[in-house]
Please model this.
Amino acid sequence: MRLSGGAAALVSLTFLARFTVRRSNRIMQSRLDALRKKGNRPAPLSGIVDFKGVIHAHTLISHDSPGLPEELVRAAREAGLNFVVTTDHNDRRIFTEGIEGWFNDLLVIRGAEIGRENSSHQNEYLLAINIKEFIDGNSMGIQEIIDEIHHQGGLAFVAHTWRFKDWDVKGLDGMEVYDIADSLYGQAWKAPWMAFQVLTSWEDYSEEVFLNILTRPGYSLAKWDGLSQTRRLVGIAGNDAHQNLEVFGHQLDPYALDFKFVQTHILAPHLEVDTLLSALKAGHAYLSFGLLADATGFQFCAMKETLLAIMGDEVARVPGLVLCARTPQNGWFELYRNGRKIKEAFSDRLDYGVEENGVYRVEVSLRVGNTRYPWIISNPIYVI
Model:
């Protein structure tokens, strides 16, 4: 059978496109491999350990996740995580069947994702971290839910920031400044291109394909910067891991890939539930896109001869106060004050003499080929 000229041309173009995409991903893979081999961690701060983990993960207790607990634990250990915070959709079974505690060297902390409809008939969500009993969010207002989370000794974080409207409530501990699912939804226009990438490259280049969704979370960062002028909200990454997305027979969101993609790092003296969550509540944390390179060891602190403050702390503005940021490898530093960029540099360190009060935070990006990707987003230091 002979192909018509048009059909032959289409086959040729399809083959060329497939070859081009796979070649591009192969080049990306080699560049990422080279990037990950770089690195020289800064000397650790005295009494502080950088613990890497993920927050916002679902198991089969959630109606929309078939993920098995043993799969979650195995993937977390393979990703080199120290902790995982599970947040199954609100269900009484969380407190009878949900996993928690130590799994060899992995600490699992139990929580819930509580959703309710607000006055505008939109669903908004809270991550209730380390609660002890079921909270019936359907019968309570957002403020009542937050109060009950705190009554149980838990932490209340806003999930899916773009959906949340009740920012006037009191007692929020923090918010997701990045969420994998939100990033996917916000880039739905990429669906045809992503589908072609999956068809041609997923088996060999899943990490490189997944990087197509990595963009700076501009909306959430702007919201966070605005709110931070009047209140303290700790920024975290939301993995929103479900292990439930299958396209063309390919599992696109295995726990292992979700957990490698982005992490929340918590700086604490040791790995134990109360200590870790106390450090998280204080904002001693940053988020990083570990699929680019491991950011463990990143520092952002305030100094005057000796260490005065780390991320999340308040520090008095005194003559000679310097903000210092250190990374395991060279990247593009951007220092923000009250949401406005005030300094940029390419290095593995940034030092800034403070002359004004304000809310200061750092972003670091890495270049892969011709593209700069966000790598690290710090929590603020509050200079008063």
The mean pLDDT is 94. The longest strand covers residues 322-337. The CA atoms of residues 234 and 245 lie 29 Å apart.
